[in-house]
Amino acid sequence: MAANLDKEAYYRRIKRLYGNWKKGEDEFGKVDAIVVSVGVDEEIVYAKSTAIQTWLFGYEVTDTIMVFCETKILFLASKKKVDFLKQVAITKGNENANGVPPITLLTREKNESNKPNFDKMIEAIRGSRGGKTVGVFSKDKFPGEYMKSWNDTLTAEGLEKQVDISAVVAYTMAVKEDGELGLMKKAAAITSEVYSKFFKERVMEIVDADEQKVRHSKLAESVEKAIEEKKYLGGVDPSTVEMCYPPIIQSGGNYSLKFSVVDKNHMHFGAITCAMGIRYKSYCSNLVRTLMVDPPQEMQDNYNFLLQVEEELLKELKHVKICDAYNTVLEYVKKEKADLVAKLTKNLFAMGIEFREGSLVLNSKNQYKLKKMVLSISIGFADLTNKEGKKEEQKKYALFVGDTVQINEEEAATVLTPVKKKIKNVGIFLKSQNDDEEDEEEEVDDAEELLGKGARGAALLADRTRNEMTAEEKRRAHQKELANSLNEEAKRRLTEQKGEQQIQARKSNVSYKNVSQMPREKDIREMKIFIDKKYETVVMPIFGIATPFHIATIKNISMSVEGDYTYLRINFYVPGSSLGRQEGNIFPNPDATFVKETYRASNLKAPGDTSVPSTNLQNAFRIIKEVQKRYKTREAEEKEKEGIVKQDSLVINLNRSNPKLKDLYIRPNIAQKRMQGSLEAHTNFRFTSVRGDKVDILYNNIKHAIFQPCDGEMIIVLHFHLKNAIMFGKRRHTDVQFYTEVGEITTDLGKHQHMHDRDDLYAEQMEREMRHKLKSAFKNFIEKVETLTREELEFEVPFRDLFQGAPYRSTCLLQPTSSSLVNVTEWQPPFVVTLDEVELVHFERVQFHLKNFDVVIVYKDYNKKVTMINAVPVNSLDPIKEWLSCDIKYTEGVQSLNWTKIMKTIVDDPEGFFEQGGWSFLDPESEQGSGAEEDSESEMEDETFNPSADETEVEEEDSDEDYSSETENSDYSASLGSEEESGKDWDELEEEARKADKESHYEDEDTSNKKRKNRSSTLPPVKKKRRS
């Protein structure tokens, strides 16, 4: 046997087995020796005898007898297996070098009765402790002459007194080492992959295609075949993977929430339960989910309660007794929904090499204490009644949810199968048009009975003509409903928020709090300008008095030399001067006297002077500039910090298995050059650059977590849009993203490339593999983080391309997620709009002859600046409307509006705004009725077909005169007149056109010279009109 045996693992585990035996607790205290005999039986999948072999050696060793005595261990096996076991048997002189009894290997003879070997083993049992009682696994019965002869020998020697030690050995093996946990986590991950990528997708296909003739057993067989394909196993070797049990799929009112059921019924679209478990390298995992097709509200409520029960159970599964966890959960169900207690099913058991450990199950009597174990927890509600069910299969349903979990010491249990199970992830909601189609079919059947099959098509066509609404009409009807509720909701919200906004006055900077702080410098005594750098103050003489001015009061300074004199001009901030956009013209004491000062000094040196008098002004100019620059820099930093919410401190999780992504770049950059680093999920996120810089992002500060895959992009991105800004790199940021490049951003165009160049083909193949690898790594990280946060933090993925637009400097692709509209691949900066904060969307410049239009997003917070997206292609208008039509009001217009003034008007007088109709001024239907629409349409037609405005006026006058003469005494409406006129034949129309041309020709003759007249008379009338 060429297999290697992990000696370290064997010694650790045999020590643990002997340690528990020596303690003498429970059945261990009753036995003198332990006998494990394993035969050959293909039908036995799980047995304690084979499980302990796999636990100790990593393999099953069939046709082997193991005897564990107090001072020695004996193995009887064939020659090949003895060679394999020698790896742990040969130690230093076969002594007790590793703290465990020495091993004696006996080789089994095939042609003999093995009596000498049996006698040696019986002798060893007699010499172990009392030598009377043998511990065995009583449920394990292997067939064959070899096993029979051994059992007969035990009986003949008077060792028939046997104690079942299955429970105590199972408890010993249930405590998992780190290596075992790693294998079970991998098994759980594979189960999750097969469920998500194969089973769930297959069920979606069946529901979409309405294939209700698919049998549950056939679907289960397809799942078993799927584990033979590497793409569903996350790259794991298929030979190391097998099913723990045949997948169990149930629906249509027949449910048995156990793991020993085979269902061959046809699938029914209601509640579809699926249980599947996969073994990886002999270690098991389990996953149970319920998919619901168009679930009624009561079913959704029961399912949400089931998830709450599971959460409650996970909180209780710590290092406690199993019965205590059971009783707590039962009390919770009794307290919340007592009527569901009788329908609650509980399948909780320890899991490892064996799928189900019978001695470690969840019930009210189990006194075993939970330790570092892995459990399969599966809870459900059986035999529930669907009040809305019409068919027999719809009247009964069951809900079943289960996961593989790891027990922690203090915290709640960790879920190892991170498959999402919220109602939005397992509910399949079909379009409501199905009901309408059923009604149509019923009506068609009635028509067929009355009129025969020939009238079926006609009846259906007439019904559709009368009742069927187009998508645009449905959108308009829904938009009207939204418009009615929009104004009411906005008015109510503004009323609640009403309150006087406190206008902040400009900060008053005081130079010196008392006279004693004034410097006693020579320049001040000589009435020169002095700059106090410590207090950032300029002391200058005003009317012969040294007067201090803080640097903040100085707007700007300038110095000029004219002839023999130097002039220093100091401009102060005064009422009426601009203080900047954000500060406003607000002063703490606007009635005070303000100065604007100019100083002059000679450039000529007087006799006896040591320096030129203008030197003081030149030094003052230079120092004031320096102090002013330093002050403004400090003010800018303080302004950045304004409004920064103090974050909680990051709690470092010292566990080495924290989810981690390496070799990522951060945007915005921490320093001038971009640096790589790693993103690690502790109790919150921490990014650490290679230089040692740290950026912490708290889970509760994340508004949107967005994962942008690398499909069609050159980078793969994790983007965090924050609720409150954080500071790093001396600036505040509300958007932080971590990314890595997938391929080459730039291409060398000078390089000679050929279509079939092997290097290029290899590079493309490598890039494809790189993309797949990165996507898998990022998805794995996301799933671990979502599991770690119990899905409180959910990553959104942009689900389709919506439209191109320019929210900032350049055009980019905008994509929707479940709760936002984003573009995070281009940092210009990134674009993230939260849909819950949007009041309405207005489309500007929507005209037929324009290729682009603009999108304006107005927020519920009217003090917030509106967002403009420019240069949106006009063919994107309908897709955007379709996307917004769910719950956001939109309007459109032909003009560009001044939104700054509009929002200021609304904020200044919200009551007046809503009294005048609120946002209805944006809706063209509210301003003019259908008649006005027809007029505008006819005007547009006139503008389209007529070459000039002058001709339009002439033709309108002619048509008015004709209309008045023909219908002067008539009672018909104007529309009738227009219809009669439109019914003229070609001769009449040509005659009218000729008259109109002559009249316009005469007008031109009056206003043109002879040369122009002669030239125009030879041209067609229309050409002549254009030149006039």
From TrEMBL:
The protein's assembly and partners: Component of the FACT complex.
Name of a matching Pfam family: Peptidase_M24
Entry's family note: Belongs to the peptidase M24 family. SPT16 subfamily.
Gene3D superfamilies assigned to the protein according to its UniProt record, in alphabetical order: 2.30.29.150, Creatinase/methionine aminopeptidase superfamily (3.90.230.10), Creatinase/prolidase N-terminal domain (3.40.350.10), FACT complex subunit Spt16p/Cdc68p (2.30.29.210), Pleckstrin-homology domain (PH domain)/Phosphotyrosine-binding domain (PTB) (2.30.29.30)
Residue ranges of every copy of the Histone chaperone RTT106/FACT complex subunit SPT16-like middle domain listed in the record: 803-893
Gene Ontology cellular-component terms listed: FACT complex
UniProt feature coiled coil, ranges: none
Positions with biased composition (Basic and acidic residues): 981-1001
Biased composition (Acidic residues): 932-969
SMART domains in alphabetical order: FACT-Spt16_Nlob, Rtt106, SPT16
Subcellular location: Nucleus; Chromosome
Function: Component of the FACT complex, a general chromatin factor that acts to reorganize nucleosomes. The FACT complex is involved in multiple processes that require DNA as a template such as mRNA elongation, DNA replication and DNA repair. During transcription elongation the FACT complex acts as a histone chaperone that both destabilizes and restores nucleosomal structure.
GO MF annotations, alphabetized: nucleosome binding
Designated name of the protein: FACT complex subunit
Alphabetical GO biological process terms: DNA repair; DNA replication; positive regulation of DNA-templated transcription, elongation; transcription elongation by RNA polymerase II
Organism annotation: Hippocampus comes (Tiger tail seahorse)
